[in-house]
Amino acid sequence: MKALMPYVKMMFVEKKDIFLSIFAGFMAGITAVGLFSASGYLISQAALTPPIATLMVIVAIVKLLGITSAISRYGERYFSHQATFTLLSNIRLRVYEKLEPVSSKILHHYRSGDLLSRIVGDVDSLQNLLLRVVYPPVVMVSVFLATIAFTSIFSVGTAVLLFIGLLATLLIIPTAFYVGHRAMNHHIRETRGNLSSTFTEYVYGFRELTIHQATDERQEQVLADIRTYEKQKQQSQAIHMWSDATVHFFSLFVSVAVLAYAGLQVVDGNLAGILLAMLLMISLTVFEQVTPMALLPYHLQESAHSAKRLEAITAEPMEQPEHVDYNGQTAPDLSLQHVTFTFDGEQRPALQDVSFYVKPGSKTAIIGASGSGKSTIAHLILKSFPYSKGSITVNGTELKHIDEKKWWKTINMSLQSNHFFVGTLEENLRTANENASVEEMARALQQVELSHLQLGDRVDEKGANLSGGEKQRLAIARLLLRRHATLWILDEPTSSLDALTEERMLQLLFNQAKDATVLFISHRLTGLEDMDQILVVDQGKIIETGTYEQLMEQNGYFRRMKELERELFAIEKST
Prior knowledge:
Number of domains: 3
Subcellular location: Cell membrane
CATH architecture of the largest domain: Up-down Bundle
Number of helices: 19
Transmembrane segments: 20-43, 49-71, 133-154, 160-179, 241-264
Keywords: ATP-binding, Membrane, Nucleotide-binding, Transmembrane, Transmembrane helix
Protein name: ABC transporter required for expression of cytochrome bd (ATP-binding protein)
Radius of gyration: 35 Å
CATH topology of the largest domain: ABC transporter transmembrane region fold
């Protein structure tokens, strides 16, 4: 329940709408009780043939109560839903504001389907917090207490029976079913998250699964998750039915008890017979208010578990150090000293005691085999991952003290996997520079040899309608539109290109970044002759450092990799 408290506090921000909805709900409930009790009294009076004026007064009261009940019910719906929609909007805003600072971290902890299930499904579930968890008990208690107070004027015993019914339907029965439903709801949430993740992976990986003829196995896994989810939902629905049946049975039982008790009171002469129908109608009508209580255990547990799942991904980030001013107008220097980094949940460090220095305006290549830790270095410099051991400084300032947004504004980066949005080529290019002119974007496409494409051409999700080479060249075109970047981080920017095109693209990039500090990350060894320094990374450690000539003079890892690459090129050329 602790996880629900921030959302309960948010709910009471809309005090006006909540107060009006509760007031309207109370008026709707109490006038409904009054309407039926007056109707019962009218029937009893009519049987005694009173003066017509008496009946006219009672009929007028019945009509007035009916109109008031209808108007109040409309007001209840209007104000409660208005407060709920505002609450839902505020919750989405809160989730986004808390998610944004830790987004780079949680993306490595949660599968995309599960994350989507949380920020969509769990947020939507919290709309029930007001409508079905907080609001019904408040209205029910207020209507019951007012009814009990009114009933006690005529029959204290009947009022006691109504109070017992209030306790049972408000506390005892809902609490019993809440305990029974708690474990079930937890399993349903987890299963739904797993189903979302499995189905998302199945859809995104359908082409590869089809090629490798593995669709049947993955499809069966999706179907198994669906069957598990449906089974758990059926069990949950069974609990709902039992809860609803129990509440209604006890309500009817109390009404029968009221009728029996009032009847005995009439027989004993302690109660006027004309009031018997009125007391029965009061009992039957007031217990209509308890209908929402049957589902309260489910919605309470659902809201609590949704809040827990949201808090898990929007946990407060680590205390942020004080930021210093950074303008990044000139090419920066970079210094890493004894940096060690381990991904959460992993035992083996991704980087171990990494130290190197990059001069401002210099070109540094970081090379090594796949999985050696090259990209991890880039992500640490980009502040995608928080480092705890060692030091990374920019122009002598610790990177932790530089605001991420100001830092990213000075960086041009091309990662191994560049994201492309559904839309046009122009819209994707504008993600790099929203102020770029049409002529500048057309020239960038021409420079990266994509003149056959038009700015209005459509780009599918993740660039599915583009080849691997086209996607990399489009990513390079975005880099060309950010001319004022003072730090370029190029992580395998040409890995999908042929050798000749790669040479032209690298030359284009280095010419564009001639005045900037450049980190060039690659597992290939071509185009490194003009680098100011080369860092050779293996198993998270820097094992060699130097210029191209210095490393070739050494009989080390780099020279052996270069000789092996030459042999492979020679074999490939001969065939």
